[in-house]
């Protein structure tokens, strides 16, 4: 990616993230509000993790107790031990969960819980996480989940759809299409050695020297 594209992408993502965070916080600080489940979704480079980081910083300044977490899965270019990291390099402390006990501990004594890259939650833990979220919001907590809605094959992640159906508010972020340059990318294009991946490739493939992901609009996204 060119430096000009990266600069435009970073600026676009930052603006979107600021707007989403303002909306989320407006709902959170409503005097009459009850528990809330809010979803932030979009393709790679759309600012999902940046939004989570912004939320963490604002919550800290307001005195609200917040926890940020992520599933403990092997994706070394996406998920890091002990923190989340946006594409622009910004970081925020985060815990990881790999067991039902980990999930239960996330929600203890917190007012806000943010879960980043939630779509990577192992299938065997999804019911437990969903139940913990619903119990948390029933007690007045605010859960915010950030992640992908569409896979690189243009299918919908089942867990993402489940969360979207249950959410009080959903916010879709877009990215700048890496191919045409328009700010309307909704999909993540999987590239293997620089070429669009086949439809027969696995649903989950971690980025590597051979595998990369770029944002693409509906017109430019390709499945071989």
Describe the protein.
This protein is an alpha/beta fold. It has one domain (3-172): P-loop containing nucleotide triphosphate hydrolases (Rossmann fold, 3-Layer(aba) Sandwich), CATH 3.40.50. 33% of the residues lie in helices and 22% in strands. It has helices at 3-28, 48-62, 100-106, 123-138, 158-166; strands at residues 36-41, 66-71, 83-85, 91-93, 95-97, 112-116, 142-147, 169-172, 187-192, 195-196, 211-216. It has a six-stranded parallel sheet with strand order 5-2-6-7-1-8, with helices on both faces. Strands 10-9-11 form a three-stranded antiparallel sheet, with no helix packed on it. The chain has a two-stranded antiparallel ribbon with strand order 3-4. α1 packs across α2. It is globular. The mean pLDDT is 92.
Strand content: 15-25%
The helical percent reads 25-40%
Shape: globular
Distance from first to last alpha carbon: 22 Å
Strand order of the largest sheet: 5-2-6-7-1-8
Number of strands: 11
Number of domains: 1
CATH topology: Rossmann fold
Question: Total helix count?
Answer: 5
Q: What does the average pLDDT come to? A: 92
The CATH C-level name is Alpha Beta
CATH architecture tag:
3-Layer(aba) Sandwich
Contiguous uncertain segments of 5+ residues: none
Please trace the helix and strand order, writing H or E for each element: HEHEEEEHEHEHEEEE
CATH superfamily: P-loop containing nucleotide triphosphate hydrolases
Structural class, please?
A: alpha/beta
Largest sheet: 6 strands, parallel
> What's the gyration radius in Å?
17 Å
